[in-house]
Amino acid sequence: MSFWAGVRRASAIGFRVLTAVFMVAVVIGAAYWIWSSWQDRKLEAQTSAAKTWQMPPLPMNPPVAVTLKTRCASSLLSFQLELEPPLEETRAATAGIKDVPGRPVDISGPLGRAEDARAALVEKLVAMQFTVALLDSDGFKLLDFPVPRSTVMRTVDAKGKSTSLSASGDAGIFCDRSTYLRATAANLRWTAK
User: Fold this and answer.
1) Which is it for strands 141-146 and 152-156: parallel, antiparallel or unpaired?
2) Best CA proximity match to 144, nearest among 174, 182, 118
3) 81 near 190, Cβ under 8 Å?
4) Fewest Cβ atoms nearer than 10 Å: which of 47, 55, 68, 106?
């Protein structure tokens, strides 16, 4: 056996080994890609469904009901926020108001006063800046975002009086899906302008 025959034989064995290693790497890479794509689709399905958060009412007189829905789709956070002073509690809060001399008498009775008080409370809410925070199970902030004032809209009744506020849109922030899934509570903060 000559020297060149041994080199040819060694190179043929080396080529087979390299080909086998390359094929194993391709198979492992393809399996990893399939698994990660499946995991990614699974996470996207979990986070792109709207989630309604249990929110305490805003501590105002009367308390303002808060409804918050969020979702994390395509790694962007979307939200829907509604603030609604309940009419019945507003009626109870204004029931003790007496007519004052020199002030026009409210001929619509307590219901009209309650509607006016609710509209005034909604106007007070319009002037506030709200920030939403998503928290983990231990109460630590995972992410937060301001509610853009440009998305805040009043809802009015047939008489043209404000009944609630709503805001919706994209928060414009990146939302890591695994972080979003760890969120177990939401918090609403506000500052008066």
Assistant:
1) unpaired
2) 174
3) no
4) 106
